[in-house]
From TrEMBL:
CDD domains: Peptidase_S66. It comes from the Bacteria. The keyword Transmembrane does not apply. The keyword Protease applies. Belongs to the peptidase S66 family. Residues 171-287 form the LD-carboxypeptidase C-terminal domain. Keywords: Carboxypeptidase, Hydrolase, Protease, Serine protease. Residues 13-127 form the LD-carboxypeptidase N-terminal domain. This is LD-carboxypeptidase.
Amino acid sequence: MTIPAALQKGDTVGIVCLANKIALQDIQPGIKLLESWGLRVVLGESVGAEYNQMGGSDEVRTADFQRMLDDPEIKAVISARGGYGTTRILDQIDFAGFYTQPKWVVGFSDVTALLCHLHRMGIECLHATMPKLMAQPDTQEADESLRRALFGETLSYSIPSHTYNQIGIAQGLVVGGNLILLDTIVNTPSDIDYDGKILFLEDVGEYYYNIDRVLVHMRRMGRLRNLAGLIIGQFTEMKDNQIPFGKTVNEIVLEHCAGYGYPICFDFPVGHVPHNLAMVVGREAKLKVDVKEVTLEYLKF
């Protein structure tokens, strides 16, 4: 995997809307935080643009992202927020220049599709907080993890163990993101290989039965069989039908991963929560799950 160059103070980063629209005032705290790290922030034309729910038309968002990728002065491109729309423009992006001079691309949620696309190209990227969510009273750890990742500092996380955890040690490239987006990109040019990987999953606002349906699909495709390890992040704002599905997300996961033998950790701080730790997609890491503690340590910098 290719590691984009670590940022340095004085570098320029760009902010674009790959998906839903956003007003400039909603990302001002995030801009100020990035500037406090010594970075210069450039805003794309899609920031503040509107086309129904998206940050400008597909053409506007495509051209905006393309400019950011191709500009050698911009050292990282950060999606202002998630929502919906990233997959609509992926096939219109020319990654040729980016491939020869890679830079950090940052986002999560709907941006999962783009992160997987870059992983398939062999370039590391960051599943991490975005300007809409940054610089809030309870996001300091998430913000700091992004700063450390961008500036090439070591990343190692430790959390208490969970009752449902499956004990063990795994080592492999870290991949993953939003569960529904991972299912959406199956058999597209953005699809990824899961074998031997440490997979992390998160989601928001889904029905329990739909989480089950997607995991059934992944299991039937063999996507869950040969993982090195599995990290279950935050599944928030879950919904249920009038007749309850009858299982929690954790119980659904354990059912579909039964018998595979790899370590599984639950309640990891990644997803649509303030404590959303940066995950380097495509970087090798070691996952240790024991009875008292879970650690995820990235191995290359």
